[in-house]
Each structure stands twice: as C-alpha cells, then as structure tokens.
Amino acid sequence: xxxxxxxxxxxxxxxxAAQLLRTTPQFPAAGFNLGxxxxxxxxxENGLMDLAVNAGPRDAADKLAYNKGVANLRLNALDxxxxxxxxxxxxxxxIRLNPTELRYRMARGDALMAQRQYAEAQKFFKxxxxxTSHPALYARLGQAALATGQYEDALEFFNxxxxxxxxxxxxxxxxGTAHAAxxxxxxxxxxxxxxxxxxxxxxxxxxxxxxxxxxxxQHNYRDAARAYDMALRLxxxxxxAHLGRAIVSxxxxxxxxxxxxxxxxxxxxxxxxxxxxxxxxSRGFAILRAGGRGQDAEPHFLTALKLDPKSPIAFxxxxxxxxxxxxxxxxxx
Length: 333
Fold this sequence. Notes:
Helix content is 75%, strand content 0%.
C-alpha cells in the first residue's frame, strides 16, 4: 500500500496518494509523504500538521521546505491570512538546499508576486532564466510585466513562451497575451487569444470571462452573454461573471435578468471605485425598467453621484426613482 502510494505521488495523483497513506501503518517516511500529498492536494492545514511531526529523511529537507511554502502560500490566497512571508522563507530555504530545482525558483517568484514585489520578482525570474533557460520562466516574466503595466514587454515574454514546446503555463500565457493586447487596445488580437484559450482550455472560467469582457467592450453583447453564461456554468458563484452578465443583460433590454445578476455580483462592484460608476447607474435603471420600486433603485444612483457628483444621467435616474416612489417633492428638489 505504501509503495502504491509512492507511485500515485510520482504520477501527481495527490489525492489518491493521500488516501492510501492515511490507511498505511504510520512510520516517519509515510507521515512525511502524507504531508507532501496533502499540501499538493489542497488539504493545506492537514499537510502542515503532518510535516510538523514528520520532517522526513535528511536528504528531503528541500522537499519539506518547499511543501511548507506551498501550503502557506495557498492558505494565504484562500483566506487572506498574512503568511506569504513565511512561505517566502520556506522557498528560500528550499532553493538554498537545492538551487537547481526549477519549481522552487518559480514558487519563490510567486511569493514575491503575492507580496506585490513585482520588480524583485522580475529580477528573480530573469536570474533563474539565465541559470536554467527553462521557457516556463518566460510566462512568469510575462505575468510580472502585466502586473507593472509593461504590456509590450508582457507580449514579448508570452510570445517567447508560446513559441516553445513547454505546455505547463500554456493557459496562463494565452490569457496573459489576451489581457496585454486588450490593455494595448489591440482588440482583434485579444479576441483571438481569448478564443484560443476557451478552445484549448474549455474548463477555464477566466478564459470565458476574459472573452466575455472583450466582446462586451466591443458592444457584441449577444456573444458576450454566451461567454458569461459558460463561465457561470463552470462556476455559478463567480461574482465577476455575474457582473458581466448583468451589464450585457441591461444592454440587451433583459432588465429582470440584469437585476438578478447584479444581486449576485457582490464584491465585484466597489462603491469607492470611480471606474464602477456605470455599474451603479445601470443597476439603478435595471431595477426601474424591470418594474422595481423607486426606493430600491435610489441607493444605486446616490452611489453613482458620490463617484461622479456632476453626472446628469445619475441625477435623472434619482429623479425617476423619486417619482416612481411618489416622492414628488423630492423629485422637484
């Protein structure tokens, strides 16, 4: 059973390996490999607990540090606990013990990115590329360039990666190319790469969402709606997909559907973000056009006016809300 678990671990079947190791008579190596499998399978807290009491053989110290780093980094992404620095220290230790292992270097760069140390991450990825020449590092450099608004550089890095035979970062490179092209207002190229992404990686919510956003920006609302619907089939709770579907539904005159999707957009709409002004105006008018109450629409127009105090359309919406609520005096004011 233990040997079968090691085979599953080697094949990256981490959940299957963990299940086998949980039913294996415990000894230090089994406990250590269980911790590794759990860290890689997503059971991060259990993995950290197992690794805390089963450090493994001395020649696996780099593997121990790396998996502790992975668990801490993923936990930070999941629930926002402030342990990226801890992850970074583990990755540095793994690299010190085994400087030739590429995944340790990529993980350290990811930790720097998570701490928004983008310039340091770029420097680190470039150094690793000089030493290993692995094409996957071009994709990481592209992500770092995207984060700092260096869109032309990002395109160059992603192109170099996509020209290679490596496919470990294929989806990220397609999406990164599409995003950089969109930011550069190269919309046909952005659409081309988003479409490639959904064709090759049909299960990617990000790919369908990016395609929907780009189509929406080009006023192709019907196709955008289909892209958002696909994203929501893959993840019915995705707030940005609900926001996109709410906007295109409003543009298409599907006001009741728009209201429903706005209700599920949640934190995707930020009342402090000036760029979100149009979302609040659209939501207010969607409520009114769907036959909703004026007092339900009013708060959204008020938020829009906080973001743009001179907006005539927000004032018009607020006045219409008051009229509908039969607050004629407020409407005249």
